[in-house]
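Page 37, top half.
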Amino acid sequence: MLILLPPSEGKAARGDGPALDLPRLSFPALRSPRKKVLDALTALCRKPAARDVLGLSPGQAEEVGRNLLLRTAPTLAAADLYTGVLYDNLGLASLSPEAAARASESLLIFSGLWGLLRIGDRVPPYRLSMGVRLPPLGGLGAFWRRSVTPLLDAEPGLVVDLRSSTYAAAWQPGGRAVAVRVLKDGKVVSHMAKATRGVIARSLLEGGVDPGSPEELAKVLDHLGHSITLGAPPTGKRSWTLDVMV
């Protein structure tokens, strides 16, 4: 089972480990595209237009300067880097040893800068959304899709997709995936969805389960106490949809 996560805008302020070592990151086939994005981001952040291109407010101007130091800044594990609502509810630091071992194998974090990360990968704090059109590479969702797709298409198992739409653009896993939506009073919610997705990821990891089909996943989540509805089988290359009611 693969569990796909977005990153979070909230990140730890700084790392405490050695500088970035691209060859040591997981998915070594992504080394070249990672370098291209890193070079393009560094070049952008030397220009006055950087804040507008990155979608930053005036109060976030320091993020531009931080991006200029990515090659030399101290790193930390991705498990400690992301601090948003989803990750607060996932609670990686408090997982049992068995669940933590499963997390290191099952969790994949999509990133506008790094493409894919496993939770043990060490990177510095950065600011770059997958939704950015980064000169001269263009939209990062389409850029990463070319490199990520052959890697993840070769990975076996059911895919539990907890990404936001921005990050879902980087890989479309098709019918072996279940995209999780969060509903309240019949309507899709956003902020609450982040918390619920974190809870679902944690319950799957702590539950020690490995469902092999969307139907098995629905039974597992129901057994774990979630109120869910599995959608009809998808057509074409679409993923299954599983609605979680909160």
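Page 37, bottom half:
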Amino acid sequence: MARDTRAGRSSGYEGVLRARLRQGLRRLTGTSPARAAMLIFAVTIAVFASLLMMPWATVAGRSPEFHDALFVATSAVTVTGLTPVNTADHWSFAGELVILIGIQVGGLGIITIAALLAISVTRNLGLRTRLVAQEGGISTGAMGETGQVIRTVVICSAVVEAALALVLIPRFIQIEDDAASGLWHGLFYAISSFNNAGFVVHSGGLDGFGADPVVVWTIMVGVFLGSLGFPVLFMLWTNRWHVRRWSLHTKLTLQVTLLLMVVGALLYGVMEWSNTNTIGEMSVWEKVQNSLFASVNMRSGGFSVVESNMENSETMLISDALMFAGGGSASTAGGIKVTTIAVIWLAFLAEARGDAESTAHGRTIPPSAVRVAVSVVAMGATLVLISTVWLMYITGLDMGRPLYESISAFATVGLTAGLTADLPPEGLYVLAALMFAGRVGIITFAASLTVRQRSRVRYRYPEGRPMIG
């Protein structure tokens, strides 16, 4: 009888604890969905770091260094691709599987959380703003319900990754003459490319596949689609090529993405055409192909068929700019996002022409969007500056390599100038924090800024115009 009483009390306490936990989580997600997103990602990284700390996760059969496990877990969940150790040589098959699952969970989580935050933001705004968001395919209709958003994201990702795998798996089986190895490598690169992760499971990276058009173009297509963002893919799927039905966000994302891709490929090809350490000894077709591959991956993919630190300094500077730009909003790509660049550029054009408002494709861009865009760029530049100075202090190097590594981490690109593998633990912690901030922080920062703009000011101070320029 006493035992039954104690068991009843225990179950009662557990029930109260669960209820309070659910209430706390509901309160957290309701009052601050951005904060909840950051907490979810932090816990997820901790879980995958714990798994990678297991002896069975390494080839050597012993636990890795904590800073290595934490860094790789952060890199996988934030779909970055930077790593202080060689993935193929250091991690066992079980460790690589943990990394792949981390990439998939991180990629799906990033897209889903970004979409849900967009919904949360629009619900907190006025009717007119919500109608505009509905036109963009974000807040209501097919994407309006939380459960349906998640299902659509998962289905979209699964379909694209399956299509990529169906191309890569037979090709890798043919190249490696091993069904099991080809199956694993094809699946890994399909998931890694669509999620813009940049992880590779060959000891020499993709160096041996630079002349293989099937591998190169399939990975390139996967990175490109992943970088567009779920709202754009959803809009293209529902409206196909009826351009007039596309939202302003879709049009700006595609325009800036294609522009950066073409310009980046041209600049890379011109600057590296005669560089024998990169593409100088390739055929003309291979030079063109790998220039385009490099341009696509500079903005978030992180795959490379040549060593980045062998590129000319001018090329690395162009890479810095493209990495910082990143891909589309609510995508697996990082950076400040191409629509941020578009909004700032349109504001610049409007100011140069003397127009009172920024416009594009028959739509007026509100000043609040310009303020958010400028704030996102300022936040990103500040984080990169702090990280670069810190890495310069730790390593004693000049600015070039620390800047390249910092932008790659912030924009979750994964390209490296060879610095990550040489960094001491404190340097790895700096880049890990930057990957987390660049991946989750930018999304939540922009969302929180947008929500705060809903408050109406009842009074205004007299205008004061400081001198600018």
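Margin note: The chain has 17 helices and two strands.
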